[in-house]
Amino acid sequence: MADAFPLAPVEPVRDPQATLTDLIEVLLNRGVILHLDLIISVADIPLIGVSLKAAIAGIETMLEYGMMRAWDEQTRAWVQRSITRTVPFQTDEELVARMAGAHEHTALYRSWRPGTVYLTNNRLFVFRREPREMLWETTLEAIRSIAPEREQSVGGEERTRVRVELADGSITRLSASEPERLIELVRQEIPAAIPGESRSTTTKARLLYQGQLWYHEPRAGGPVWRGGQARIDSSGFTWKAPVDARAAISLQPDEIRSLRFESDHSPTGTVILVVDVPWGSLRLAAQNITDIANALVRFSSGRKELPKPSE
Amino acid sequence: MGLTVDEKNLKNGVLSLVVTLVEVIQEALETQAVRRMEGGELTEEELNRLGEALLELDEAMEQIKADHGITQSVADLREGLDDVVDELVDKLINPRIAEARSERRSGVSGGAE
What we know:
The structure holds two protein chains of two kinds.
Chain A: H1 20-30, E1 32-42, E2 45-56, H2 59-64, H3 69-81, E3 95-105, E4 111-120, E5 123-128, E6 133-139, E7 143-152, E8 158-166, E9 171-176, H4 179-189, E10 207-217, E11 224-233, E12 236-240, E13 249-251, E14 258-266, E15 269-277, E16 280-285, H5 289-299
Antiparallel strand pairs in A: 1-2, 3-4, 3-9, 4-5, 5-6, 7-8, 8-9, 10-11, 10-16, 11-12, 12-13, 14-15, 15-16
Chain B: H1 10-39, H2 44-68, H3 71-93, H4 95-105
Helix pairs in contact in B: 1-2, 1-3, 3-4
């Protein structure tokens, strides 16, 4: 035998990398018992005491130790009796597409709530399974336009959002894993929903008025005159300020109890139109307030009295 | 220990941290779910429900990360956390080897061991 290779000494080696997931898995699989006695003191005087005994483990481990079996079975049995956990489709509603997505929630603060976007032959909605909640939905007919919108996200990457405008003037934003495909499919379902084309061109929405209108909007600190766009057609009387996400006024004909003119200061003069509705009164003003008043009269089927404005 | 949070964009940093921790919990749930599935006690309906729910959860996490553009920060934070765990386990299992390793890392010429 010629030369023998010098062999390197054998060293015991651990698996290369322990990850956090592995650590938690091992702890949960084996089970962890925690005994904690804690006193929080100030100036050596105990003020808060904590005496904690905890057993934390994966349920399988608990079952192996003979714990929680009854509770586990009760929990699983309760679910059988509760309402069905499937997606709330209507009868005869057919699914066209579904994909992961999110709905932009704008009530108190802006945030994206994740769920699944469903497009059917009747509706577009975002549904979350766990916990079960319909995050947002609309019928396809109520969609006035749908278009992509690029946005700079918090983390810096550009995202394509889906901007949906509804017949009542409200704007909702969704995100989807395939935004362009979703928009394409929605447009196929309702050919009229193309950006820039207003629904008033169809025979269904008979337009009575569209234009500038001032609304004395009730606010926490007192009512404020705000300018916006009013639209009166057969689907409703809506008013929305440009900076708002949704219409502040959205009325049906039978919600208009009466109309009258009043003398009061407004951004356009000294005459305002007061519209009485079941929950109060709306104070409106415009340069052509009589045109708007007449449109509202026609809107509510001409049943309302309208005295001439006093000089 | 190299855990860095993006100071330039604090919202980004805090959000990434929160999402990272949620992801860790999500993975713990998934491993325990697998154990339950293998345990053989769940009915078929329960298995389906569990599988679908976890899948939706996974999709939701991906959606959240993508929507806020934090996929890379979260991945980096995970790596940082894993490094911390790795060092910790090293120290616990064999303090002498761990010490020798860190001495080698910092370039100290070894003494006898």
